[in-house]
Design goal:
It holds the Pfam family Ribosomal_L4. GO terms for molecular function: rRNA binding; structural constituent of ribosome. Forms part of the polypeptide exit tunnel. Keywords: Ribonucleoprotein, Ribosomal protein, RNA-binding, rRNA-binding. This protein is an alpha/beta fold. Helix content is about 35%, strand content about 15%. It has a 6-stranded mixed beta sheet. α2 packs across α3 and α4 packs across α5. The radius of gyration is 27 Å and the shape is elongated.
Length: about 210
């Protein structure tokens, strides 16, 4: 598959980029995409949730009423979950939600999403560019030139560029990343992928190792 290279104003530069079939033309595997997204979201969880159970509630352990003769059920402790202020039954405890996923599975997941986006014409190749300084207005003009003002976009750069990152970080629905940091969740969450011309070959080399 060949795509035209567009400049920062959305105009065709006359150059073409051939996308590798091994990255942008495979048969998508939806299950590995699910696993990779699941792992990404699980890793975002702090797991610091905690509620007090009956052994941790600060109350007296005195038996609150006699065992027999009251006409009611037996009650041994005010800490019982049956009483207001008592401990919680099987409450949440701190835990680690992360789990292991093989590198080959994660690579296949990214290839699957890239292939799906390519088939749906959801990828645009942008000529390498930078800004003179961090200006949000410049990035908005860039999005406007591609008619992407109200769409979720992911810009993939070959390397970190402070001026570009700072220009787009406060704009809703805009995400900017580098080839080394791109993940399946960001790829699948974006409606349109904007890939820098140099980043294409770097991304293909990374996923074809």
């Amino acid at each position: 598959m060949e795509l035209s290279v567009l400049d920062i104003k959305g105009q065709d530069t006359g150059k073409k980029v051939a996308l590798a079939e091994t990255v942008f033309g495979i048969e998508p595997n939806q299950h590995v995409v699910y696993l990779d997204v699941k792992q990404y979201l699980a890793n975002q969880r702090q797991g610091t949730h905690k509620s007090k159970e009956r052994a941790e509630v600060s109350y007296s352990t005195r038996k609150i009423k006699r065992q027999k003769g009251t006409g009611g059920a037996r009650a041994g402790s005010i800490k019982s979950p049956l009483f207001v202020g008592g401990g919680r039954v099987f409450g949440p405890r701190p835990r680690d939600y992360s789990f292991k996923l093989n590198k080959k599975v994660k690579v296949l997941a990214r290839k699957s999403v890239l292939s799906t986006k390519a088939k749906a014409n959801g990828i645009s190749i942008v000529e390498d560019f930078t800004f003179e300084g961090p200006k949000t207005k410049q990035y908005l003009s860039f999005l406007s030139a591609f008619s992407l003002t109200n769409k979720k976009t992911l810009l993939i750069l070959p390397n970190h560029d402070d001026n570009v990152f700072l220009s787009g970080r406060n704009i809703p629905k805009v995400n900017i990343t580098t080839v080394d940091s791109v993940n399946t969740y960001d790829l699948i969450n974006a409606e349109v992928l904007l890939i820098s011309e140099t980043a294409v070959s770097k991304l293909e080399n990374l996923l074809n190792k």
